[in-house]
Amino acid sequence: KNIGDPITNEDVEKNVKIPEGGKIVSIGDKPGTDTPGVKPVVPVVIELPNGKQITVEVPVIVKPKVTPVVVKVGTPVTEEDVKKHVDLPEGWKVTKVGEIPTTATPGAKPSVTVEVELPDGRKVTVEVPVTVTPKHVEPSTPAGPTTPEQPQGENGNKPQPETPAKPEKPSENTKPEVPKAPVAKAGEKVLPNTGIADNNSALAGLGLAILGLATAARRRKQK
Fold first, then answer.
1. Which of 133, 160, 178 is the endpoint of a domain?
2. In what order do the strands lie in the sheet with 53-62?
3. Comparing 8-17, 132-141, 150-159, which segment has the lowest mean pLDDT?
4. Cα-flanking dihedrals φ and ψ of residue 86, to 5°?
5. Does any domain span residue 24?
6. pLDDT (tens digit, 9 = 90+) per residue, 67-87?
7. 148 and 134 in contact (C-beta within 8 Å)?
8. Region Disordered: which residues (predicted)?
9. 43-52: which pairs have CB atoms within 8 A and are 24 or more residues apart?
10. Given Cys at both, which of 21, 36, 56, 148 links 49, Cβ 3.0 to 4.6 Å?
């Protein structure tokens, strides 16, 4: 039995050769399987066809503990690798290592059959599992955006932008010039866009006429 596997009645019966017409009457105590090695035998009472009963002893051997061989893809498995995964009790030895699977692809591979010899010369076989794991591939890190190079000055310093010149403020004492009125030459009328010059001349003539009428009326009254 493999280490840790309990022994059942069916396990014992499979290892008893019963004569034709005979039958098993009883099965004795079964040993534990927590540790590897040769265990106490299991007594089995058999009744023969003639009614006679006999007792036979069924030997119990608990096989060594095995652990899986785990390698990455492409890593070859050697016989020494397999042997290291068989926990042999004192006095036991590996006499044969079976076919070792390849590791070109990941996954569970066929177990390796290992033959082990006991100190008394009896032999048992164990199966060593083999698992191939995929290689870990580091994800590629995308390149970040590149920072544009800054222009350099003569001494390797970054040139500073020029400060725009402030517009000059007009002097407080400076007053805008008032355009001079046009001066009329002799015999020439000045006609600005507003027509003010002609109107003033007409008003002046009208005022003289009224003044003359007022003076004449005053003289008549005095007489």
1. 133
2. 23-27, 37-47, 53-62
3. 150-159
4. -115, 115
5. yes
6. 999 999 999 999 999 999 999
7. no
8. 125-200
9. 44/12, 44/13, 44/16, 46/16, 46/18, 46/19, 46/22, 47/22, 47/23, 48/19, 48/21, 48/22, 49/19, 49/20, 49/21, 49/22
10. 21
Residue at which a domain ends, from 41, 62, 83: 62
Query: Tens digit of pLDDT for each residue in 208-223?
Result: 556 656 565 566 655 5
Q: How far apart are CA 188 and CA 89, in angstroms?
A: 144
C-alpha to C-alpha distance for 20 and 49, rounded to whole angstroms: 7
Residue 148 identity: P
CA dihedral 184, 190, 193, 199 (to 10 degrees): 110
Q: Mean pLDDT across the chain, nearest whole number? A: 80
When pLDDT is averaged across residues 7-16 and rounded to a whole number, the result is: 95
Residues 6+ apart with CB under 8 A from 57: 41, 42, 43, 44
**Which among 38, 88, 33 has a CA at the least distance from the CA of 58?**
38
3-state secondary structure of 167: coil
Give the range of the structural domain holding residue 14, as residue numbers without chain letter.
Answer: 9-62
- Which backbone phi and psi does 135 adopt, to 5 degrees? -70, 145
Other Cβ atoms less than 10 A from the Cβ of 50: the count is 8
In angstroms, the CA 74 to CA 19 distance is: 54
173 pLDDT tier (thresholds 50, 70, 90): low
